[in-house]
Known about the structure:
Distance between the termini: 34 Å
Structural class: alpha/beta
CATH superfamily: Glycoside hydrolase/deacetylase
Order of helices and strands: HEEEHEHEHEHHEHEHEEHH
Strand content: 5-15%
Number of strands: 10
Shape: globular
Number of helices: 10
CATH class: Alpha Beta
CATH architecture: Alpha-Beta Barrel
Radius of gyration: 18 Å
Amino acid sequence: MVLGRTRSLVWLARTRGCPAGGGLRILFYHRVSDDHDELAVKPNFFRRQMEQLASDGYRVVDIPDAVRILESGSLPPRTVALSFDDGYRDVVEHALPILADYGFRATVFVVTAVADGRASFDWYSRQPPVLGWDEIAMLDSGGTLNFEAHSLTHPNLLRLSEEAARREIAESRTELQERLGRAITVFSYPSGLFSARERRLTIEAGFTAAVSCEVGANVATTDRFALRRIQIDHRDRMIDFRAKLGGGYDSPLPLRNAYRRLRYGVSEARRSSDLDS
């Protein structure tokens, strides 16, 4: 956290708080809750963050809209996209009313087998409530949130056989399409982990774009199956949020890749670097 806060302060001193241009940033969250959970942003912090976007004149879009903007080749200034991973119910309880107040849109990436109780998130001893299918279908047509795919069970795709990885990616799209009655176009790699194989399987499954957890801004030439996102988490204060929004976190923190290899396994080193091979 010390490194992150230092980076935020350096950004503020260098830019005097003026955001960098030249791309569309995607901010992503998991939970919006007062729970003691490293994935949970407190509701009052989330409201202040959305107030900042509104006061700065940002247009806030969901991920399919962000893809369409990138495809157009014309990136309007002060446009940012929002997404939430995993489909926790507190996103609807706490984030949705705030988003609706400002007329903002966001995408929720759903783990389909968790949504109907066939699987659970293994990082919790007691999993927080997630949205069920009836809620997802109702909310998807409500105008503020849209729902896209985040695999069947949220595995580390890099550790699966090709057939198992294909099933996780393709069947999550099929299940979500059947439930919502529309085309599902965007995939979120679980934990942001992917390589050339996962990129190929996502294309073969019929998606038109995919998001990662690699940081940075997206431009017209950014690979649509390796879109960059910047996470907002429980440690972030307003200076950190402004820095992430303004380009201060467009490159990885030192030792980030080493940490991810330790957490997810040596094979994580294959991730996006394989796309050029």
